Amino acid sequence: MKRGNLLLAIFVAFAVVASACGGGGGGTSTKPDVIVGSTNFYEQITLGELYSQILEANGYKVTRKFNLGARDIVYPALKTGQINILPEYLATLLAFVDKDGKIAKPTTDKNETLAGLKKALDPEGLTALEAADATDQNGFVVTKDTATSKSLKKLSDLQPVAPTMILGGPPECPQRPFCLLGLMSVYGLKFKDFKPLDVGGPLTVAALEGKQIDVGLILTSDPSIVAKGFVLLDDDKHLQLADNLAPVVRKDLLSKDDGTLTKLLNSVSAKLSQAELNDMNKQVAVDKADSKAVAAAWLKKQGLIK
Amino acid sequence: MKALGDLVHWLTDPANWQGSHGIPVRVFEHIELSAISVILALLIAMPIALYLGHTGRAGFIAINVANVGRALPSLALLAFGLVIAISLGLGLGFWPTVFALVPLAIPPILTNAYVAVREVDRDIVEAARGMGLSEGQILRSIEVPLGLPLMLGGIRTAAVNVVATATLGALVAGGALGRFIVDGLALQEYDQLMAGALLVALLAVATEVSFAALERATVPAGMRAIR
């Protein structure tokens, strides 16, 4: 046992010296410097950590520029090269980049929206990599009790019971296509009443818990879903635009790389389901865990880093 | 001018006068919310004011403490009330708003009632005491009736303040007329917003006028000649 450790230590020491020499002498594959950015929102910082840590574990030199502000500040930073990787949301970014929808319009389909986004980003010298299943978009939740007693899993399950239920959401919900109007036209849901609250904030959570509403609008990656044990009803008829998470990168970064970077970031997106993202959001936002540690633990659990 | 047209159109649209989100329901909710807040404030402030006014003790301190209620921002009390109501299981909307409105209503009620009792002519009170009336009788049959118009003046001020401020309730998912203002803002429907503001102002004026009438009606017969 002891001898094993010693041998390992010697081996590691040699490896470090060898790699240091390799770097100095211009080795076979040079890895480009990566600068990961994020907006000022815990979910984005966790995502930034996931991207940073998997790249660092594979020998990339990563600079973190997190918490930069809103998209209006962070996106120009990506365009001008002050950062070269940014976690983004497909539909929202597409609408932001291509405001009039001349190049492509966001749809409810993940792949279609990703393709449209790539087209829109192309003239800006940017591209999007594979998108995760995880989204951050309008979601409708019920409490665990309601879900079990009325056997609800997806939005279309609400159809027979909606007339006895009260929907809660932001005051503008009854007139928005991605809220009550969409629930009526796409799912044919007619609720007993609508209660104006906030955008998936503390009022909606309290109203759900206090049984003043039966169904509430909460963003799909909101930490309260895990923290309060709410059941997020699956958008089985695809009412919402595809706001799946994907890394947006500068093309000049990819051209300096041998394809490893793309492969690594895609492996993160492939494992990032809604439940996994929500669990990390809950750890960071509710339990106040360090996003660096949460990201490291998740990457290890998924077998993406050792 | 277009805004005025929109406002008239909104107010005359029959759809806005029906159902659980219509104007009559919201007006009723507004009156209910305001009335309960003022009644609770009366229950708290009146016994204190009458006791202090009658005995003449510590009035200065009590009034200054009550006046802190005027200085506390109702918005902060609302947020605080929300936390308390949720932890007590009282829900959103109604009770958090009551919690914010009661401290707003206490100072005018307390101050006016205290002054009303204090300002009753001491000769009358002394004469009553000399005739053998008990302290309770003095308060009930002399100090309160003579001070009633002034007391009602305080309640009037409190009620008007409460009616105008009860709109805050919509911020914590309450009903009442504030709903039109908050929802109008969220939807950028300025006709709805203005209609809400107008209805609140009208209700406040109506409160003012009815209390003024009540005040006039309660002036004791013997004092009317003075006016």
Output mean pLDDT of chain A: 89
Q: Strand fraction band of chain A?
A: 5-15%
- Which fold name fills CATH's third level, the topology of chain B? MetI-like fold
Order of helices and strands of chain B: HHHHHHHHH
Query: Approximately how much helix is present in the residues of chain B?
Result: over 70%
Name the overall outline of chain B.
elongated
Which chains have the largest interface? A-B, 15 and 15 residues
In CATH terms, what is the architecture of the largest domain in chain A?
3-Layer(aba) Sandwich
Which bin fits the share of residues in helices of chain A?
40-55%
- Structurally, the number of domains of chain A stands at 2
Q: Largest beta sheet of chain B, briefly? A: none
| CATH level-4 homologous superfamily of the largest domain in chain A | Periplasmic binding protein-like II
Q: Which radius of gyration of chain A do the C-alpha atoms yield?
A: 22 Å
CATH topology of the largest domain in chain A: D-Maltodextrin-Binding Protein, domain 2
- Domain count of chain B: 1
**Tally of DSSP β-strands of chain B:** 0
Major sheet size, sense and barrel closure of chain A: 5 strands, mixed
Q: Architecture of chain B in CATH?
A: Orthogonal Bundle
Structural class of chain B comes to: mainly alpha
- Can you say what the CATH homologous superfamily of chain B is? MetI-like
Q: For this structure, what is the CATH class of chain B? A: Mainly Alpha
